[in-house]
Amino acid sequence: FxxxxxFDQGYNLDTFCYEPHSVEGxxxxxxxxxxxxxxxxxxxxxELRNFTWFLNVQLKDCEASVFCNPDFVQDTLQxx
Length: 80
Known about the structure:
One of its GO terms (cellular component) is membrane. The chain has helices at 2-8, 27-37, 45-64, 70-73.
């Protein structure tokens, strides 16, 4: 949710990193973001769950990768 919210607001996501247990927004805002970004018209709960699970796995891997660390790659992979 935090990544999607910042993406919609035009923030640079290259420097953002999720802080465990940090809470932002309401459950209604969270659901709205997922509905806007999941890519399925009128998704089922299962489709929303799969979307959030896949997005979460990808973002965790991205945050853990040295190749996505802006301090390591400097400006060579801007926007990657």
